[in-house]
Design brief:
mainly alpha, globular
């Protein structure tokens, strides 16, 4: 799914560059004001008591830089200098972007997105909810974007590039199996470094300056053209906020009842009596048939950091089986009615993962028996391409289901 990209990526890049250039602004200090009667001539006293924590906005960076340079301007030129700064701030403030078209920090979107910390999942969850609520049409001034927003763009770009990079690494003959996790670790390390920079910025103080804050009217609406399919999908889900059950945690029995309620509402013309009869029979089947407890796998992040990092179906299954054995639950069964959507999804991806492993074993054996690389190598490449949706799309789909509720 693709949301409208902001028209002002250059502004974000400029923000990052300007932040790096003015890194000295984070050093403690007081801007040197003069006694000339201008709007910006008010000196800052007791700067420590005026510390404002959090990431500086684009306007904070501009005014802090202007405040430092102001100390080098002669008294007779201060009025003109202040006017130039005011004009620049005004021109930048007039440029607006659709905030929900830009990536957000996962902790600002939801609890589960913060736990997963997958930039693509966060972007999709926030974007879908923004379309549903109409926030996608709201704009904000570039001046109010923060350094952390610029870093978040970088994190999202890294997450997007990671997928083709891992896929390409996995298709390298012979060493692809070992090279793929190395490439993944490199990108994960880059994301971790970006998060550390954000946390460091949040813990610091915004550099003081002698200019008053901008007062802007944020209620500006510029409609965004969203594909009908995206609108329909967005209308059916909302961000999980703790007051609703995420899609991933809905049981099969609940799904059946939701479907019954939908058809019973008259949205689709049908024989309602026959529909209710079928739904009752299905609920009876789900309640009377059991499934082994180990088949209802825990989430990878509940089984330890190594299992979470690998995120491979067979590894997760074996780790889950080990946990069930340790807890004495391996021989227990549960009704199909209690199977969750996430459990069913995991079983489907587990089947595909096992199929992929068997295919790999087959090509390896073929190589050992004398079949040339001219045959086995193309087969391995085809395998990577065929199972790419399972390897890269399934975790994103699972994350969205865990982070959103059905409306």
């Amino acid at each position: 799914m693709r949301f409208p990209t902001p028209r002002l990526s250059a502004s974000i890049s400029s923000l990052t560059a300007l932040t790096l250039i003015t890194g000295m602004l984070y050093a403690p200090g007081i801007a040197q004001g003069d006694t000339v009667e201008t709007l910006a001539a008010t000196p800052i006293a007791e700067a420590e008591q005026m510390c404002t924590s959090g990431a500086p906005t684009f306007d904070d960076v501009v005014t802090a830089a202007a405040s430092v340079l102001r100390g080098t301007v002669g008294p007779d030129q201060l009025a003109g200098y202040d006017q130039q700064v005011a004009d620049f701030r005004t021109s930048i403030a007039a440029v607006r972007v659709h905030r929900d078209g830009l990536p957000m920090r996962p902790d600002l979107v939801g609890t589960r997105t913060a736990e997963i910390d997958d930039p693509i999942v966060t972007y999709l969850v926030n974007g879908l909810d923004a379309v549903r609520t109409g926030r996608i049409d709201e704009t904000m001034s570039v001046s109010h974007l923060t350094v952390n927003d610029a870093i978040e763009v970088f994190v999202l770009a890294t997450g997007i590039v990671k997928i083709p990079a891992k896929l390409t690494a996995g298709m390298v003959p012979t060493v692809g199996f070992f090279l793929e996790p190395v490439v993944s670790a490199m990108f994960n390390g880059t994301k971790a470094l970006a998060r550390a920079v954000q946390n460091s910025i949040d813990a610091g103080c915004v550099a003081p300056n002698v200019y008053p804050p901008l007062v802007l009217d944020e209620a500006v609406i510029e409609p965004v053209q969203v594909p009908p399919a995206i609108e329909a999908l967005a209308a059916s889900v909302m961000t999980a906020n703790g007051s609703c059950t995420p899609v991933a945690e809905l049981t099969l029995a609940t799904v059946v009842e939701r479907a019954r309620a939908y058809f019973d509402s008259g949205a689709v013309q049908m024989d309602r009596a026959a529909m209710h009869e079928t739904a009752d029979a299905l609920q009876s089947f789900l309640a009377s048939n059991q499934v082994a407890k180990p088949m209802l796998m825990r989430r990878a992040d509940d089984l330890g950091p190594l299992v979470e990092a690998l995120d491979m179906g067979p590894v997760t299954f074996l780790a889950n089986l080990g946990a069930d054995l340790a807890e004495g639950q391996a021989l227990q069964t549960v009704p199909l009615a209690q199977v969750k959507v996430e459990n069913a999804f995991d079983l489907a991806t587990l089947t595909l993962d096992i199929t992929s492993l068997l295919f790999s074993a087959g090509t390896t054996v073929a190589g050992f028996t004398g079949v040339g690389a001219a045959v086995t190598t193309p087969l391995s490449i085809v395998q990577d391409l065929v199972f790419a949706p399972t390897d890269y799309g399934a975790p994103i789909m699972r994350g969205v289901m865990q982070s959103m509720c059905a409306v």
